[in-house]
Automatic annotation (TrEMBL):
Residue stretches making up the HMA domain: 1-64
Origin: domain of life: Archaea
Protein name in UniProt: Heavy-metal-associated domain-containing protein
InterPro entries recorded: HMA_dom, HMA_dom_sf
PROSITE patterns in the cross-refs: HMA_2
Pfam families named in the record: HMA (PF00403)
Amino acid sequence: MSTTLTVTGMTCEHCEGRVVDALESVSGVTSATADRETDTATIEGDADVDSLVSAVEDAGYDADA
């Protein structure tokens, strides 16, 4: 299953990496990508959306499903 989140606050490649690391730490995520140009993160796997949003927010960014 693929999930796309809107993620705001990413300004550089390092930010994208922090978002990806946060998302990949969530149980059920098999892969994740983040793109600061489109303010999105795409997640593969069967993780709960609320858990994904919480992980991104805990990393210091705003997220919405």
